[in-house]
Structure formats: structure tokens, C-alpha cells
Write a structure and sequence with these properties.
Blueprint (H helix, E strand, L loop, with lengths): L4 H26 L6 H26 L16 H22 L5 H7 L4 H13 L5 H24 L6 H25 L3 H25 L12 H39 L1 H14 L5 H30 L1
Length: about 325
Amino acid sequence: MSFSPRLVGLGAAAVTVAIWTSFIVIARASAAHTLLPLDLALLRICGASVILLPWAWWMTHRKGHVAMGSLGGLSPLPLNMTMQAGALGGLLYAMLAYAGFFFAPAVHASVLMPGSLPLWTSLLAWAVLGERIPGGRWLGLACIVGGDLLVGGASLLKAFEGGNVWKGDVLFMSAACCWGAYSVTVRRLGLDPVRATMAITAFAFVVYVPCYVLAVLTGQVPSHLAQALVSEWLFQAMFQGWGSVVISGITFTQMVRYYGPVRSTMITALVPGLSALGAVMFLGEPMHWQVLLGLALVTAGILFGVRQARAPVMQKVAA
């Protein structure tokens, strides 16, 4: 069967938004069950590795590009590129994000992770790549900062009363910063998105899995894998690894090919609102006025920043 480019682009956008939204709700729900944050990171990495590592090995060996890859052909990129991208997008992001869900609710993650991602990406691209930020886009970034402060500032004030939500908020912001740094690294090195995803998965598998096993066996790190059901193992490996890493990585790339980066960002701006709504509906989390206003500011900041970016893009295409 053949599908029109419009139908393929629409399907890719729907799948991407659905997975990104579900990731926040499911990760928070998983925090109430047996597995710990590092357990979830392990299942995410192993689940993605089942698909991506054989694919990468076949790709490098079939085309005779073994010398251009690294890690025994598991990564299609050179070692220095694999390490730079893998440390940010493969290791730090997963560990920080999953740890955050054990302290803060999903509605906070909706604002502070996908919501603040454009902020970190723009600032890092300005600092590392020298990209100019138009004056109008600064207003959009200011809205995102205001939304983050409304959500994170309230939890920080409660820290003096013994609350731990602020820890999750800091972890969410750090995870978003790591993913923004990974995105800038991909652009700076000119990496193909599919090969970059293979590389970060290979790096995480080679580095994280042995360290995790050693730390658990020596008692340095707690683990609840033995107490969890095999069905929970399989579900987390399939959703976190296959869904969040493999499928959404491919569908996001396809969405950008059809809609372009500007319209794609407008589509993904739905994620903060939808994930917050999912947290209220499925997890029963309260939606306080600070979170609601912060969510509105973050979404408005994303959309305003995208509209400011549209004119330069159109001028470049015309030229």
C-alpha cells in the first residue's frame, strides 16, 4: 500500500505527539510502582538496543563503513561524536528525567521538560553556534521563563517546609537542558537523526549497562528489578525503548521532513497541555492556578517564538 505524503506527515505528527504526551504520564505512573529511576533507565536503554544496535551493526558492515563507526560497529558514528551525543542524549537525559518523576508530579514535568526545551535549545544555540535570537523571540523565551518560575518557584518556596517537589523540578529542568544540548550537538556536528539515535543508544548500552550491573551487585545502587513482574519489565522496555526512543525518533524526523522545523515545533507545542490534561484525567493530579498559568505562558512562549522564526526561514527559502 502507498500513502500520500500528507497522510504520512499527519500520521507521523499524531504518533510523535501521542508518544511524547504518554511518556510523561506513564513515567510518573511508573514511579508509584516497583521500579526505581535507574531501573527504568536500564529498561529504556535495553529496549532500544534490541532494535537499534543490530540495525546499526548491519548498516555499518553491509556498506563497509566499519572504520567510520565505533564501539565495534554498534555505533555508525566516530567515537568522539558518539561520546559527545551519547553522554547528553543517551545517559544524562534518561537518568535525570526518570529521577524527577519520583519527586514531582507529571503536571510539573509538562511545563518544565517539553515546555522549557525551546528555551534551553535557543540559549545554547546562541552561546555555542552563534545563532542570533531576534528581538521578538526573546519575548517568547521570557514567557517560558515566567511559566517555569511560576511552577518551579512555588515548589522551591515549599522546600523550606520540608517539601521535595523542588528536587523533581530541578531534575526536569536539567533533563531539558541536556536534551537541548544534545540537539545543539547534533546540529553542530551535522549528524543524521537516525544515526545519532543509534549512536546514543550504543554509547548508553556500552557504558550504562555494565556500570549499573556492577553497582547493583556490589550494593552501591539499589534495584527493584527482582521484585517487579516480568510483564512490567516488558512493558517498560517496549514503551520506553521502542516507543520513546525508536518510534518517536523516526516519526519526528518524518514530521520535520513534511512540515518543516517551524510547523513541527508548533505541533509539538501541544505536548505540554495534553500531558498536563492526561495527568489530571488519568493520575488524578490537581491543577493549581500557578501550574495552569505557567502552562499557558510556556505554550504561548513556544508559539510566539515559532512565529518569530517563520519570517527569517521564509526569507532564506526565497533567497
